[in-house]
């Protein structure tokens, strides 16, 4: 059962998700007395979170006044990948006002990367996207102490361990900030406006440079005691497998991720097992997951097999999670989701074959609808939730 939210949080979320509503509609939806609702609205309007928006359509008597989120509310969302940085500014309804995406090397350290995010937000401000930010949300590709707002021993983020990301963003932008791992923010984004919209129990599996899983239970993200729930990339799949970035052997991430697929694809190209990859290696000197996807679409047998092998590894781990958690949906996202339906079909096949029929008879396994925007969307949702909670 979902934990009850304070009235002001429910009210602001309703205006965020539904748009302008009349006082009468708000009273009906929230099931509160008119006196209590009007007092709460008066307080939120005075605090700058809500605003009147003209007269509503008549319901047979005196016309009620529409209420909306303050049009000046602005949220910043930042999605950090190992090789990329995405920054967006949204209004209160989480509609995009400004957006920037560029390549970046997360291994250059937190100060350089966060400073670049600051520069992109300053650019948005100079272009008129906002005057001041209401809150900032950020996702990073590694374990995060959600309570403390810091990454903790992230295997693929050297130099980021215990860096005070939340404190840094709060200080630099003069507003509250929230930090979570990338799989969680993608799950939040997908639930807000993607394939899992309004689904209360689902898994979002992010497959990219790393592998992670956002877990939704009873309408809320489940983060575990210390914030590292869902780190499925470091579940051992093969005791004789390659060494993982975490130092252990045979982890899922070491067998199938962006880096692992590039490694296997390069070996296939150099041995000429894959004509398509050999041609691309000769032309550019490297091969990537995109090359594998293109080779598979051209019918290259080795590329298809590489994708199927990866799907089999992921599916095996997910089958265990399905038996354990009994989700109502699985969403596949992240950079390697571009491998498409060959990957999806293999994951489905393994999950459906290895899980109990009762757990899979109504279990859709689908690709993310938001794609690369899942992360920034989720970070904006978390930023808005934080701001609304602090509007007390």
Outline, from the CA principal axes?
globular
The CATH topology of the largest domain is given as: Nucleotidyltransferase, domain 5
Mean pLDDT: 95
For the largest beta-sheet, the strand count, sense and barrel status come to: 5 strands, mixed
Total number of strands: 15
Tell me the helix content.
Answer: 40-55%
Alpha carbon gyration radius: 23 Å
CATH class of the largest domain: Alpha Beta
Total domains: 3
Strand content: 15-25%
- State the end-to-end CA separation: 24 Å
Q: Kindly report the oligomeric state of this protein.
A: single chain
Low-confidence stretches: none
Count of helix runs? 14
User: For the record, what is the CATH homologous superfamily label of the largest domain?
Assistant: ATPase, nucleotide binding domain
- Strands across the major sheet, in which order? 6-5-4-7-10
The secondary structure category is alpha/beta
Q: Topology as H/E string?
A: HEHHEEEEEHEEEHEHEEEHHHHHEHHEH
CATH architecture tag of the largest domain: 2-Layer Sandwich
Description:
This protein has about 400 residues and is of the alpha/beta class. The protein has 3 domains: about 5-70, Arc Repressor Mutant, subunit A (Orthogonal Bundle); about 75-190 and about 375-390, Nucleotidyltransferase, domain 5; about 195-370, 2-Layer Sandwich (Nucleotidyltransferase, domain 5). It contains 14 helices and 15 strands. Strands 6-5-4-7-10 form a 5-stranded mixed beta sheet, with helices on both faces. The longest helix has 25 residues, at about 300-325. It is globular and about 75 Å long. The mean pLDDT is about 95. Pfam families: ROK (PF00480).
């Amino acid at each position: 059962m979902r934990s009850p939210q304070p009235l002001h949080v429910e009210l602001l979320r309703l205006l965020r998700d539904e748009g302008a509503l009349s006082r009468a509609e708000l009273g009906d939806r929230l099931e509160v007395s008119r006196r209590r609702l009007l007092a709460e609205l008066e307080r939120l309007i005075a605090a700058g979170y809500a605003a009147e928006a003209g007269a509503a359509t008549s319901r047979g008597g005196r016309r009620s006044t529409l209420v909306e989120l303050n049009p000046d509310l602005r949220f910043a969302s930042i999605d950090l990948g190992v090789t990329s940085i995405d920054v967006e500014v949204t209004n209160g309804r989480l509609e995009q006002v400004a957006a920037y995406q560029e390549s970046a090397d997360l291994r250059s350290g937190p100060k350089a990367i966060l400073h670049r995010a600051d520069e992109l937000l300053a650019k948005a401000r100079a272009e008129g996207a906002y005057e001041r930010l209401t809150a900032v949300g950020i996702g990073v590709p590694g374990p995060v102490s959600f309570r403390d707002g810091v990454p903790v021993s992230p295997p693929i983020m050297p130099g980021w361990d215990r860096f005070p990301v939340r404190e840094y963003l709060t200080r630099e932008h003069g507003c509250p900030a929230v930090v979570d791992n990338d799989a969680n923010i993608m799950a939040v984004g997908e639930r807000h406006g993607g394939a899992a919209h309004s689904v209360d129990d689902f898994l979002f599996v992010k497959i990219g440079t790393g592998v992670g899983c956002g877990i939704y239970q009873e309408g809320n993200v489940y983060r575990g005691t210390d914030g590292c729930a869902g780190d499925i990339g470091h579940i051992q799949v093969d005791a004789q497998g390659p060494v993982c970035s975490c130092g252990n052997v045979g982890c899922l991430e070491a067998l199938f991720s962006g880096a692992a697929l590039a490694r296997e694809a390069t070996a296939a190209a150099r041995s000429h097992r894959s004509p398509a990859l050999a041609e691309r290696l000769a032309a550019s000197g490297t091969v990537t997951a995109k090359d594998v996807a293109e080779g598979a679409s051209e019918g290259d047998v080795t590329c298809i097999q590489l994708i199927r092998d990866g799907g089999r590894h992921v599916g095996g781990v997910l089958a265990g999670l399905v038996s354990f958690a009994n989700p109502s949906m699985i969403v596949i996202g992240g950079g390697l989701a571009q491998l498409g339906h060959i990957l999806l079909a293999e994951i489905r096949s393994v999950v459906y074959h290895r899980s109990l029929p009762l757990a899979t008879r109504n279990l859709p396994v689908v690709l993310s609808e938001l794609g690369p925007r899942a992360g920034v969307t989720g970070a904006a949702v978390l930023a808005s939730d934080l701001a609304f909670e602090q509007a007390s």
